[in-house]
User: Fold this.
Amino acid sequence: MLFKDLGLRKEILQAIEDKGYTEATPIQEQAIPIILQGGDLLVGAQTGTGKTAGFTLPLLQRLMANHRGETKHRKVRGLILTPTRELATQVTEQVIMYGKHLPLKTQAVFGGVSIYNQLKRLRQGADILVATPGRLLDLVSQRAVDLGSIEILVLDEADRMLDMGFINDLKRIMALVPKSRQSLLCSATFSKEIKNLAHTFLKSPQTIEAEPHNTAAELVTQVIHPVDSRRKRALLTFLITSRNWKQVLVFTRTKHAANRLAQQLVDDGISADAIHGNKSQPARMKALRAFKSGAVNVLVATDIVARGVDIDQLPHVVNFELPPVPEDYVHRIGRTGRAGKEGSACSLVCVDERHLLRDIERLLKQQIPTEMIAGYEPDPTIRSEPIQRGRNRPPHKNFQGNRNKGRPHAKHKWHSVKR
Assistant:
């Protein structure tokens, strides 16, 4: 369906045209009419489906319907909550871009930067506020933000907010916004916890899904490269240099591992940087800008900050270490294969990560193809090669370690372990 057939204002259509878009994605085609009608909505959408524009465009239109043209003392009427600073920045950019021909003012508030600068900007007023939960509550406690005039509330990437332990913050925020609000909840997965959250905070919501539950992006080619843990770094360097990869997002489980790997790649002559929660917000934004511009070829990231890495044509994602939570694999590879472009995702898997791989394949309901790289084949005599769990994030509450212990399972074909 064309955007012009969705009932959007001419100013919004002009901004869409300026961006070069004409046709809505399936999630936009379904979501926009429901939101324009004022209904609550539960959206199941992975990255790269256009969900941000799917709620931003009708949000702008509905706020314009009651816009009074104030230039001072604006009250926040649209609130978008995100789990991370990077995602808050990304969403803010899109709201400003699509609303550039409208008299609405958008502000972003998040941790990791000076709260005083945000206080100063908020004094100028805002129609739309994009925020992380913690910083928003800090500002509310200082009476810098009044949530009593909220008309539309969006919980973006709600599954990640739950993973990061924001449930109590969300409950506090919900108690401060009007019950008459319109609410939208976006999540890449529909876990039991997400359904409970939707039941608590949404009123008779309609539910739409952009893709089947917990599937990986169709445009992403996935492959497993078996390799001993001690040779992962050498194999990654070989893949990047021999295949002339120019833009690669690499995932590790811990902040320490991200720093170490980035430095090792630099030592190998590859331009690389790391991005994780211990870095200051200016340092994280600087690394992200360098990666997007091509000044840095490889960005090594942890799961927590990777949600804000939004690049339409990112060609390569590498799982240097598999995530302990299978759903995080879906989020990781969803960084590529966006905006209709094809992408590739490869995972470097050692012997002690095979149970993590089985969990991922069980979630995807498919076996990921395996490709041996000549000269990097794993040693079949190695029975165990412990992997670092990391201390920067607790195990997911549904993660039970090697929960397949003692159960029959399909052995992966590169080699088996005698028991």
